[in-house]
Amino acid sequence: MKITISVLKADIGSIGGHIKPSQKVMEAVRSYVDSQARNLLIDYYLSSTGDDIAILCTHTKGANHPDIHRLAWEAFLAGTEIAKKSGLYGAGQDLLKDAFSGNVKGMGPAVAELEIEERENEAFIFFAADKTDPGAYNLPFYLAFADPMYCSGLILSSRMSQGFKFKVMDVGYVEKNKTIELNVPEDLYDLATLLRDAEKYVIESIYSRATGHQAVAISTQRLHNIAGKYTGKDDPVALVRTQGEFPATGEILAPFNIGHYVAGFMRGSHIGPLMPCRLNTTISYFDGPPVVTGAAFSMKEGKLTEPADVFDHPYWDAVRLDVARKATEIRRQGFCGASMLPYSELEYGGVVEKLQQLEKRFVISD
Ligand code: F6R
Ligand code: MG
Ligand code: MG
């Protein structure tokens, strides 16, 4: 049976700064989605990660369907109304355009969609990250789909040994979508060359070469490119099918124990380690650290089970301690060098204005 899994995510306001959305806002979004679900959806799951709300839903309409995108847009508008009434911070901040025109891409919300032929026992993980951008998934998914040091299936399973196809987007190119397809293992070094620069080259999707089936979809929207100025970090979502022809759930999770350094953190302008957290985790230290949550599902004819919280295990408590230590360590050097993003990626204009002022005071001499 052909099923589409869509996840649409937006920051429409939160309590006490950028910590988490309020219960009232969550209820407003839920009640709107619920009112439309009977006609449009097979199932849905609503969640928050940091200050972002994600609507995960299943249906038979295919990717980029205006009815599904409209449903999410209007649910976020309903939530925004309550956020404004309650005085939440940044109410409606990711809804960058006034009128809906058929697709939320380019309007602020992040979107990832998988249109699949559902397997007998379909298993997938929905990841949501806050205080970072889409390049945050480059390293973990490269390791999970291309490196046998992390994914033993690449040498133990004959289907997986045929490798995977990565579709990578140049998110610096704003006029249209600019993508490249690379096959691993043979294009491994070319892939690594691109993924090294996670602010420019971002994994958009991954496919099994044995079956051609899509394994991964990642939101690649960059708010900065849409609004032309800082309006919040892009906080990417990802859908990853697991098991059988794809890496096992545990192989997908394994690289998240690195707590690798990503762009984001305070004011979207720093570098911090990505902390794997329990579902519904909020934001704290230095508006961070950047967090990622994972909800694993099984699905039958589009009906979802309850989520299994993939980072809710004693193992990840130990990882979190280590990542907290990494976060404190890089913060010790404040604004200096590698702890703050380079000039081109700074999300606030203040530095640019200051440099323009200071330029006038420079003196040129021999
Ligand atoms: C990061 C983020 C926060 C804000 C920071 C300052 O995505 O949203 O770190 O940038 O709290 O917010 P303003 O400038 O609104 O006071
Ligand atoms: Mg956010
Ligand atoms: Mg935000």
For this entry, give a set of tags.
366 residues, binds fructose -6-phosphate, 2 domains, Alpha-Beta Plaits, globular, four-stranded antiparallel beta sheet, 9 helices
Structural classification: alpha+beta
Show unreliable segments. Answer: none
Euclidean distance between termini CA atoms: 75 Å
Count the E strands: 16
In this entry the ligands are:
fructose -6-phosphate, magnesium ion
How would you sum up this structure in a few lines?
With 366 residues, the protein is of the alpha+beta class.
Write a structural description.
- The chain is an alpha+beta fold and 366 residues long.
- It folds into two domains: 1-115, Alpha-Beta Plaits (2-Layer Sandwich); 118-344, no CATH class.
- Helix content is 27%, strand content 27%.
- It has nine helices and 16 strands.
- The protein has helices spanning 23-40, 66-85, 138-146, 153-156, 188-195, 223-227, 249-253, 314-331, 350-359; strands at residues 2-10, 43-49, 52-59, 110-117, 122-130, 164-170, 179-184, 201-208, 214-218, 237-241, 261-264, 270-273, 275-277, 291-300, 303-304, 308-309.
- The strands form three sheets. Strands 5, 6, 7, 8, 9, 10, 13, 14, 15 and 16 form a ten-stranded mixed β-sheet that branches. Strands 2-3-1-4 form a four-stranded antiparallel β-sheet, covered by helices on one side. It has a two-stranded antiparallel sheet with strand order 11-12.
- Fructose -6-phosphate binds next to loops.
